[in-house]
Amino acid sequence: MMRRPAILLIAIFISLASMAEKRFQIGDFCYQVISDTDKTVAVFSCTTTATDITIPGKVSDNGSEYSVTTIGIPDFTTAIGEPGFDQCGNLQSVSIPPSVTRIEEGAFGGCKTLKAVHIPHSVTSISVGAFSDCTAIQDIIVDSNNMHYQSIDGVLFDKKATTLLFYPRGKKQNSYSIPNSVTTVGEYAFWQCKTLQSISIPHSVTTIGPWAFCHCSALVSIDIPNSVTTIGKQAFDWCSSLQSVSLPNSVTTIEDCAFSCCSALKSITIPGSVTTMGRVVFQDCSALENIMVDDNNQHYKSIDGVLFNKDATTLVSYPHGKPQSSYSIPRSVTTIGKDAFWQCERLHTVNIPNSVTLIEEGAFTRCFNLQSIAIPNSVTAIQPYTFSLCTALQTVYIPGSVTSIGDGSFLHCNSLKEIINLADEPQPLDEDAFDNTQFISIRLLVKPSCVEKYRKAKIWRKFSSIEPTAQQ
Fold first, then answer.
1. What is the pLDDT of residues 58-82, one digit of tens each?
2. N or C: which terminus of the chain carries fewer CB neighbours within 10 A?
3. How far apart, in whole angstroms, are the C-alpha atoms of residue 92 and residue 114?
4. Among positive and negative, which fits the CA dihedral 397, 398, 401, 402?
5. Residue 322 half-sphere exposure toward CB, CA atoms < 13 A
């Protein structure tokens, strides 16, 4: 009795799948049926050489008339790498018919000559990334009767102008003032706006969304008003000219990679209001020498420009641009945080005290000039990718307390010459723990009583030289 519902479900699935694949072409436009019942289609591709196009509102195929309601690949499709409007190599202007309600992600992606798009009153949804890589676009023009969106000076907002959705990256101005009505700068809002050198953010704004100013490579400084509480993930990622950032005492959250790859940024001060900071907030900030923290902050502190939690038990982030070649971690520290020393290229040595019990994943990844490391006997595990891509690392001391070594811990450490491992039992290893290292060139020194164990152990036996050490 249970078979009939199952057969029915399969039949429905097959019907939907076949519907999803029903496509046809009329002239320069390609269409995909969304619903045979409702007679609706999406236009997802165009190959015209014209500079201006008007998308039709209705089309006919095999005696059936369809309304064009969507631009771009519909959500249900399984297609990958479909040609889109980027095939229209001369396209400068698009007029969308009033039958369209949705403009999908990437609908006009890659239309590098597109300068203007006219949005009709019927559109209720415009996906993030609908105009991705439209590097020449200067104006988004929205019908005044649209109940969901509006444009101000060619910039796209929601209807109430409380969220700035898309600033056309082909605009020529080098400065822009966000309207006072705006409370949220949306995801990717200023993505790759490479001509903007300054942006004025009003006190109405409370949230700067993920990737909001990402790749604004000409942006030199930014003053964030004291109304902002959240700086989203990668909000200022790859703002490579950014030299000055003023963070107000209203910001409580700074998300992952918020200022990563800001290669001109030399110093930043975390205000007293910040309670949460994501991972690698300042990743690849190659000039950053100091991360300062307001004395009134109850969650973080700075010691010599290095970021710690408030009681200095966790080292959160070591600035990439510090000029010193060696660093001694304070004895208060028990945890070296995830990616804490990520790509600190100037460091040759780091002294880890016996107070440290946990070195988190990726803590020293890409420390390209780190030459030696001695893990203290307070540590019991080497987490995954802790020393991966430390390409100058030559000597490693592993105490007897370490019972596990994670995936990729010494991945691409191709300068390794000597490992002293005092563990009584060979730690279990995955294939990539020492992947792309030169086993034939590395001396593995172990306790005299353990030599044979290591010569028989998986992965460890790959080391061509396994010798006894006098160290205990």
1. 999 999 999 999 998 776 544 434 5
2. N
3. 4
4. positive
5. 23
